[in-house]
Design brief:
Elements lengths: L3 E3 L2 H10 L4 E7 L4 H15 L7 E7 L4 H6 L7 E6 L2 E7 L3 H13 L3
Parallel strand pairs: 1-3, 2-3
Antiparallel strand pairs: 2-4, 4-5
Length: about 110
Amino acid sequence: MTIKKIEENSELDSLIQRNAEKLVVVDFFATWCGPCVRIAPKLEEMSQSDQYKDNVVFLKVDVDAASEISEKYKIQAMPTFILFKDGKKVDEMMGANEVKLKAFINKYLGSSN
């Protein structure tokens, strides 16, 4: 299973609402961004891990292909990860640090279980 790539604002909004009972992690990336390319396989592993596969929905937004979405969320650096819970944005993190990203996700997972 690969992480779903989103190109339309309406699709992103719909998926965030449909998965409101889960934590939704949106990865804003660019194909030319070195750190984005390096973190991508780690994100894929996380999305399939027992720890996250049932509780977290991972989505990707290419900032160049979906500029409307990146403008809406005021993305200024890649990668930027935005977390949604109960259909609302709860936090964001910039940078491709896998350890920090896992801690960031776990912080919000813990408060739902």
